[in-house]
Amino acid sequence: MANRWQASRGYPVSRLRNEVDRVFGDFLGEGLWLGGRLGLRERSFPAVNVWEDEEKLQAEAEVPGLKVDDLEFLVKGNELTIKGERRDVEQEGVTYHRRERGTGSFCGVVRLPVVADAGKVEARLENGVLTIILPKASSARPRKIEVKPLSA
Amino acid sequence: MTNATAMEKQAGREVARQEPTRGAPYYRPVVDILEMADELRVVADMPGAKAEDIDVEFENGVLTIHAKVEPRQPEGTDYLLREYGVGDFHRAFQVSEKVDAARISAEYTEGVLVLHLPKAEEAKARKIEVRTS
Asked: Across the interface, do A50 and B30 touch by the CB < 8 Å criterion?
């Protein structure tokens, strides 16, 4: 039975990370996870997946138990900041036999490889999965250059 | 009684050992298990599942949770950053407390599954009044 974080941090991903590091410099470096710096609990910043196509970047994070009001995100240039809080529901007269689910607030910055059009960012939250769609700024999109024959 | 416990334990191992026929990995959801005066509560993070795709079974003292999770991105997506995998969730627990199996209930909201396992009458803590003669 795979632990999903260990599994995803195994060989293929570290290879991917190296690849990404090479391309984007400190994209995944120490500076990325503010959460770690703030001394929050390990892994309290939700894991993030980012992928892209020609038009847009998409980021997805698993935030089970959070409502729209518990989340906040900011897009500035090529930085996506995700903030949130999972509240602790402390109850009287309860004995915890296991307590694996983290609680508390988190804040993290994901550095994107290109500048996003902040005005057109869309997000949705469904079954504890946050998806953020970030259209690339027009300057960052690939442009097809038409080759015209020289008119004689 | 000791026999039953041994059998239950064995059942627990069997369930834990079951493997999916598909080669895809399945993940172990993180859980909180709380004991209250009248119930045992299991809270599991299972983001991305749909309520209708979650199976909860309780048999021979073994509680099994399974959720089918379809991939959310097309195969071959080129990730810039991939910190987690998406796939089915599976976990099984040996429940040693006496539980009223018929009254187990479950709810799923915001990617969190909450299971209520009411304690059987005989397992509830009873306050015994001490009288003076």
From this structure: no
Q: What pLDDT score does A33 carry?
A: 39
Residues of B in contact with A50 (CB under 8 A): 79-82
Q: Tell me which residue of B57, B18, B71 sits closest to A129, measured CA to CA.
A: B71
Contact A1/B78, CB-based, under 8 Å? no
| ipTM for this prediction | 0.74
Mean pLDDT by 10 residues, chain A (152 residues): 44 45 40 36 71 90 93 89 86 87 87 89 94 89 82 68
**How much is the pLDDT for A90?**
73
Whether the pTM exceeds 0.90: the reply is no
Among candidate residues A130, A66, A8, A69, the one with its CA nearest the CA of residue B81: A8
Q: Nearest residue of A to residue B49 by CA position?
A: A127
Q: What is the pLDDT of residues B75-119, one digit of tens each?
A: 888 888 888 889 899 999 999 888 999 999 999 999 999 999 999
User: Which residues in chain B are closer than 8 Å to A94, comparing Cβ atoms?
Assistant: 34-36
Q: Find the closest chain B residue to A99 by CA distance.
A: B32
